[in-house]
Amino acid sequence: MGRKWNNIKEKKASKDANTSRVYAKFGREIYVAARQGEPDPQANRALKVVLERAKTYNVPKAIIDRALEKAKGGAEENYVELRYEGFGPNGSMVIVDTLTNNINRTAADVRAKFNKSDGNLGVNGSVSYLFDATAVFGIEGKTADEVLELLMEADIEVRDILEEEGSVIVYAEPDQYHLVQEACKNVGITDFTVAELTMLAQNEITLPEEAQVKFDRLIDALEDLEDVQQVYHNVDAGE
């Protein structure tokens, strides 16, 4: 799992370096989650997950409050969640999750980015079956044994627990996200370096230099799109 953790770290570092873009995406995601249920995280699990993720990216309270107030108000924006799956340079695989109020625009934009980087869109299911939906937590100030013990005491089984560069990384099933979170908070762990619901490739590949340049350009272009919320791939980020 260590290589996958490198990809997660790289993704977070990229988002941390593009704060205004990330804040806008979180604002939209918070609004949609709040509109799909109660605008109260204690009564809306989807919203609670988004807010926990936003916390790890230091999204300002003003942006969170604005999105929640917008959800409580009378104005309604209709967004649709869509997933695109495709292939980048040298057989690399990419999943693109979007929130859009204009399906035709989003489809055209995503397709154009793939085409410009020697890639192409596939049909639904052409890529995602080779990825696993996963809950990932990064915890500091504890050892892997200590985290394993507290999860066992809470009767929670996880996929893996590793120590990487001073952090304990917990990989769990998506439906265990809240269980892991609550078990940690019950022993005083309230801050996570990472708290994500993500898609991890079952097998990662390394690209030759020229293909890597094209691939990086593709990922950057996709993440720059306003309607794109998340981009997952199977390319090893390296050390």
UniProtKB/TrEMBL annotation:
GO CC terms in record: cytosol
Keywords: Cytoplasm, DNA-binding, Transcription, Transcription regulation
SUPFAM superfamilies in the record: YebC-like
Superkingdom, taxonomy of origin: Bacteria
Pfam families: TACO1_YebC_N, Transcrip_reg
Subcellular location: Cytoplasm
All residue ranges annotated as the TACO1/YebC-like N-terminal domain in the record: 3-74
Domain TACO1/YebC-like second and third: residue ranges: 79-235
Transmembrane domains' residue ranges: none
GO MF: DNA binding
Annotated signal sequence range: none
GO BP: any one term: regulation of DNA-templated transcription
Principal localisation: cytoplasm
Coiled-coil parts of chain: none
NCBIfam families in the record: PRK00110.1, PRK12378.1, YebC/PmpR family DNA-binding transcriptional regulator
UniProt family annotation: Belongs to the TACO1 family.
Listed PANTHER family: TRANSLATIONAL ACTIVATOR OF CYTOCHROME C OXIDASE 1
Protein name (database record): Probable transcriptional regulatory protein EDD57_12716
